[in-house]
Amino acid sequence: MALQTEKTQYKEKLTSSLDNNREVLQEVFGENTDIIFHRFLTGNHLSALCVYCSSLCDTERLEKQLLSPMLDGSFAARSDAGIESFTFVPMSSIQTVCTINEAILAILNGQALLLLEDQPMGRAYSLPKTASRAVEEPSAESTVRGPREGFTENLSINLSLLRKRMKTPSLKLITTTKGQYTNTEIVLAYVEGIIDPALIKEVQSRLRKLKLEGVLESHYIEKGLADEQFSPFPQMLATERPDVVAANLLEGRFALLIDGTPFSLIAPVSIFSMLQSPEDYYENKYMSLSVRWMRYFFAVISIMLPSAYVAITTFHQEMIPTVLLLSISRAREEIPFPALVEAMIMEVSFEALREAGVRLPKQVGAAVSIVGALIIGQAATSAGIVSAPMVIIVALTGIASFMIPRYAAGIVTRLLRFPIMILGGTLGLVGMMLGVIVLVIHLSSLRSFGTLYLSPAAPTSAKGLKDVRWCRGGTSE
Amino acid sequence: MTTCKRSERESFPVRSRWKTAFQALTLFSFLLLAGCWDRIEVNDLAIILATGIDTKDDQVELTAQIFIPRKAGSGSGGSGSSEASQSGVTMIRTAVGSNVAEAMNRLQRKVSRNVFWGHCEVIVISEQASKQGLRQYLDFFLRYTQIREHAYVFSTDQKARDMLALLPPLERSSAESLREMSNLKLGTRVTVLNLAQSIEGPSRSAVLSRMLILKPASGQSTYTSDPYVRGLSLIKEDRYVKTVTEPMSVGVLMLLNQLNYIIMPVEIEGNEGNVSIRLISMKTTLTPAISNNEWSMKIKVDAKGEVVLNTTSKSIADPQMNTMVEQQWKEKLTGLAKDALMLSQKQLKTDFFGFSGQFRRHYPRKWKAQKRNWDEIFENMKVEVRVDTLITSSGKSTYPQGVPGQGVQY
After folding, report:
1. pLDDT at A87 over 60
2. Chain A residues with CB inside 8 Å of B70's CB?
3. For chain A, percent helix, then strand, then coil, each to nearest 5?
4. Which of A76, B43, B48, B166 sits CB 3.0–4.6 Å from A44 for a disulfide?
5. Closest Cα of chain A to B2: distance in Å?
6. SS3 of A220, please?
7. How far apart are CA B257 and CA B184, in angstroms?
8. Which of A19-23, A235-239, B13-17 tops mean pLDDT?
């Protein structure tokens, strides 16, 4: 709440007294060492003050483009016209600042604020010193065929990547700021004429209501805007690919690009968006179709397979083909644990292994996977702690969950596997079905910005389903 | 577009939160209270692969062939393959009771694990036991939930127990041998369900494959052997009545439309040697007819075959010769069919081939009216057998091979 009061406090305008303005600003920034108050006399002996944040401003450019023309004699001739005619400064991004609050924000955004004696306003010059990495291939969503550019942490680069793909005035980029302390810029992007105007109104009202202390990653926003807070399912699609954002904008969705993170958010989404990869649209239709169906199949596998195995081997042995049952019973003969415990041990250790592999540096990660493969795969079976069929089941489940192209959706299946496994291990297939029913009830009542999460399957729409089953083909639709 | 529910959530009533928690707790306790009691780990199962039924002084002797997972080689572990062959992966347990259910109950007392019948795919009934009526067994097999109704049923004139005690060198168990043989269609392929339907149906009879125990190779133990198919056991009403072996069994299978794998030697008149024909396909159709209140049956057999051996001196490529072979084969098949009919109609007076079912299907009203007189009608029914034969291939050679001096006559 601190900034709220501060904001109201600093609503007053800049005064014409330069000293007064300086005192106010100095009071705000206090002992910050990186806020520089540079006081000087211009070429025509006017008292001037330049305030900037040395860690954000490009000081070299500041000197060359702002300070030296001012100290120059040529300044004198035109100075009487007031601060708004500071046309001599060879810069394009100039903003007029009237209130103290604006002045503070401008400084913290990396702009250099110039105040003159007897002028009740200031000019903010954008001189950013950008520390950003280059545009790289997105690591979490790589494709074999398709653009290799990914968003970076720098918002202006991200916007340029998006603009480059959509050269139309209908693409609207609307900036807001969120976060009491971080003041992070958030850009709402949509295509006018395609998107439902009510949806935009809804987003903007939700954004307005959203109160956050800080925005360090897109999830801060996602969490705040989500329809259902307690759902494990992601209700917005996080992507670091500009082409995915562009494609979704064209389908009537909106995107939120957030400064400081390469992930932008897309909504409204359904569960099928989570199972689609951008490459589905870049490859041959038949290939994409089969791959996509395989993905649907394995998404189910990744949630159900261990529980189905446990349920069937402990409750419904007659369902297993005879020869397979004989193999399973042979493999399980020496195993000291019940199937449920065995599955739990394996799944938990697999998750641990995966987590360890993700957090470690790449060089060590390889070692982890080798150790894991040896321990889980080989040693555990030969020591008779887990059975070989269980290793196969866990491995298959692991592969299945890796097949889900959206990481956020993939971790949901990892989580849901456990309760369904317990249900399957205690009540058999009946329990598993109970779990699935609860899951389906939840999914069908879930909404992402008003759009039902199971659409277009649950409120069935033939046209929408076409894209779920097949891939949309070019511009024909 | 529905509006956001966030504001609602913020003012979430405390009472309903308690309610939700209570509901969740109730659901969870259902899970804990209800769970696990009928859970059986695979390790606690005695998987029964085959069941045998014998009689012992008026009582039922039930034999179960149980899979021993420990002996079935070390699938896991990787500490070298077990030297012991596949034999010895099954064991048998036998129990005697006044009926099959009691015997089963007693059987469980002799096994340390839960007896599990869900994978019993083979049932062997000794002729001795089926003489006393199959009804009580069939009711049990079709009623007891664990037993599969698709288990194959075999008959044997030896003890079913001995058949299950076999440890075949080739297959995992004698149950598997029996099942595979059934799938090869060497005899009839009858499941429990088929058997019950055919006994309960209008024909009130059934035909089962008759299995015997192969004499073990010298030096092998008595149990290292396989079952083999020899002949058929005929069941009238629900009792065993007769065993038929070749050539009669061939005729019976032919009329049952279940003859599949057979090689038949056919003599050619005026020629030394014979021609052996392998059956490629055979289709038997029954067409009932009632005219002038006279019931008759037309049996049409379509047989296709391939020559696999020709010890005559004539080429099979010769059209005349070909026709002659077809003719002779036809006569042979007709003879077999007639013998089988004779057995069924005159000797045993039992409708093994499902004539009654055909009449019921084609003439439902007349069948209903004459149902009581069916035995009489059947015994005196005129049956016309028509066999069509076709030699489709002469094999790799056309001329007789290995004839000294190549003295081929055209």
Report:
1. no
2. 333
3. 55, 15, 35
4. A76
5. 5
6. helix
7. 15
8. A235-239
- Which residue out of A203, A313, A323, A333 would a mutagenesis test of the B interface target, given it has the greatest number of B Cβ atoms within 10 Å? A333
Q: Which residues of A touch B68 (CB under 8 A)?
A: none
- Asked, for residue B29, whether it belongs to a domain, the answer is no
One-letter amino acid for residue A262 of the chain: P
Q: Model confidence over A381-397: pLDDT tens digits? A: 888 888 989 999 998 99
Mean pLDDT over the full length of chain B: 85
Print the domain residue range for B228.
43-70+86-245
For B47, which residue in chain A has the nearest alpha carbon?
A326
Residue B32 neighbours by CB under 8 Å, 6+ apart: A426
B26 lies in some domain: no
Domain boundary (B245, B276, B311) is at B245
Which residues of B fall within a CB distance of 8 Å from A382? 76-79
Determine whether the interchain pair B4/A381 forms a contact, defined as Cβ–Cβ distance below 8 Å: no
Contact residues on chain B for A326, CB-CB shorter than 8 A: 47, 67, 69, 72, 172
pLDDT tens per residue across span B293-305: 889 999 999 999 9
> Do B272 and B198 share a domain, yes or no?
no
- Which residue on chain A is closest to B75 by alpha carbon? A331
What span, in angstroms and rounded, lies between the C-alpha atoms of B388 and A117?
120
CB A423, CB A431: distance < 8 Å: yes
CB B309 within 8 A of CB B394: no
Residue in chain B closest to A336 (alpha carbons) equals B43
- Residue B34 confidence class, pLDDT cut points 50, 70, 90: low
> How many CA within 13 A on the CB side of residue B390?
10
The answer to whether the Cβ–Cβ distance between B119 and A317 falls below 8 Å is yes
Domain finish residue from B190, B211, B245? B245
User: Are B220 and B326 found together in one domain?
Assistant: no
Contacting residues of A for B42, CB less than 8 Å apart: 313-314, 317, 325, 328-329, 332, 339
Q: Could A447 and B2 be called an inter-chain contact, meaning their C-beta atoms sit closer than 8 Å?
A: yes
Q: Which residues pair with B46 in a beta bridge?
A: B115
Question: What are the distances in angstroms from CA A247 to CA A18, A141, A158, A264, A267?
Answer: 51, 15, 15, 13, 12
Whether residue B187 contacts residue B155, with contact meaning beta carbons closer than 8 Å, is answered with no
Per the CB < 8 Å rule, is B1 touching A196?
yes
Contacts of A209 in chain B (CB under 8 A): 6
Q: How many CA atoms lie within 13 A of B220 on its CB side?
A: 15
CA distance to partner chain A, nearest, from residue B44 (Å):
9
In percent, the amount of chain B with pLDDT more than 90 equals 49
**Domain tally, chain B:** 2
Q: Are residues B214 and B161 in the same domain?
A: yes
